[in-house]
Design brief:
The chain is α+β, with helices and mostly antiparallel strands and 63 residues long. 32% of the residues lie in helices and 17% in strands. Strand 1 and strand 2 form a beta hairpin.
C-alpha cells in the first residue's frame, strides 16, 4: 500500500519500517545522567520544535 505522499516522493515507508504500518519517528531530546537515568525528555510531533539549548544546560547543571 502506498499513500499519495509516499508515491509522489518514491518512499518505501512499509519496507523501511518492516511491517505494514505508516508510523513516522518523532524527534526527541533527552538529558541523561551519568547513572543512566533520564532526567528530562522533550518530544514534540512538530519536528521544527526542539528543546532550547539553555534549558538543556540548566538540566545538565542539576546532575
Amino acid at each position: 500500500m502506498t499513500t499519495p505522499c509516499s508515491a509522489q516522493f518514491d518512499l518505501d515507508v512499509v519496507g523501511h519500517n518492516g511491517d505494514d504500518c505508516y508510523e513516522q519517528p518523532m524527534t526527541s531530546t533527552c538529558v541523561i545522567a551519568p547513572n543512566g537515568e533520564i532526567v528530562h525528555a522533550f518530544v514534540d510531533a512538530d519536528f521544527w520544535r526542539r528543546m532550547e539549548p539553555a534549558v538543556i544546560i540548566e538540566f545538565l547543571k542539576q546532575i
